[in-house]
Amino acid sequence: MASFLIPMIAVFVIALGGRDQLLVARLSDRLGQSAALLGVGAVVSAISAAAMAVSGAWLAAMMPDRAQHMLVAFALAAAAIELFWPAAPADPKEPTRSLFAIGLVLLVRQFGDAARFAIFALAAASVLAPMAGLGGAIGGAAALALGWSMGSELETRLPLRTLRVVFAIVLAIAAIMIGLSARQLI
């Protein structure tokens, strides 16, 4: 159960204020809160979570235990760096109504974001990588649904930058602790 719940909660929290969530929030305002936009977001979240869970588990399976721990530490460090990076995507210039184009942009944005690095790390550290992928997909879809439902209020009502910096610090500390443990320094 922890292999499912921890990734679900972690991805939801880490995705707050992410580029994909902000894009969905802005498109929701511009195009209206269509069920199709929400559906595309959920499908894209499932695809990116599955890809990261499979790749994390696949790489971890080829490594000895200490190397697996270092892989997890590097993935968490990458997530922390992405969270520190200011997420201020520009508003879409033209209001595209192509769900394929929206889905493609969301997918590209998700493959380099902190939440997907967290799925990768949790799948690499877990015995039940498919559950980590499923939890990550649901958490990512829930974060996009929050952006979709709040629209432009998301950026004004929540302290997104502060949250992202706090989560970055937490992930950086976790990465350092796991890395030091893998090197048997603590």
From TrEMBL:
Keyword flag Membrane: yes
Name recorded for this polypeptide: Putative transmembrane protein
Domain of life: Bacteria
Annotated TM spans: 35-59, 162-182
InterPro entries, alphabetized: MFS_trans_sf (IPR036259)
Alphabetical keyword list: Membrane, Transmembrane, Transmembrane helix
